[in-house]
Amino acid sequence: MTDEGQRVRCRVFASEPNDLKDERRRGVVLWVPQSLDELINTAKEQLRVSSANCVVSEDGAKILDTNMISDCQKLFLESECT
């Protein structure tokens, strides 16, 4: 959890968490916004991805709220989360 007013960054990649490091496409560092939809839309725009609708952590867990994101956490866009 962060103090009031402290900004949190995250690293977002368009590849899958299980992709080999050498096969991953370049990611983007973003400030974590208030809403998950805003994070997804900004990441999609920056990474030129059209089909993503959810974000997962490096271990494959679905992120449900931006308050769950740790500073500098590695995240991945996915087109279908179950």
String of helices and strands: EEHEE
Stretches where pLDDT falls below 50 for ≥5 residues? none
Under CATH, the topology is which?
Ubiquitin-like (UB roll)
Quaternary state reads single chain
Largest sheet: 4 strands, mixed
**Beta-strand segment tally:** 4
Task: Give the CA-CA distance, first to last residue.
Answer: 26 Å
Query: What is the overall shape?
Result: globular
Helical fraction equals 10-25%
What class would the helix/strand composition place it in?
A: alpha+beta
Indicate the CATH architecture: Roll
Mean pLDDT: 86
Level-1 CATH class name: Alpha Beta
Number of domains: 1
Rg is 12 Å
* Alpha plus pi helix count: 1
Strand content: 15-25%
Widest sheet, order of strands: 2-1-4-3
InterPro entries: KHA_dom (IPR021789)
Protein name: Stelar K+ outward rectifying channel
Organism: Solanum tuberosum
Domain KHA: 9-82
From the structure above, extract its key features.
1 helix, globular, KHA_dom, four-stranded mixed sheet, 82 residues, Stelar K+ outward rectifying channel, alpha+beta, 15% helix, Ubiquitin-like (UB roll)
Give your account of this protein's structure.
The chain is of the alpha+beta class and 82 residues long. It has a single domain, classed as Ubiquitin-like (UB roll) (Roll). 15% of the residues lie in helices and 23% in strands. It has a four-stranded mixed sheet with strand order 2-1-4-3, covered by helices on one side. The longest helix has 12 residues, at 36-47. The mean pLDDT is 86.
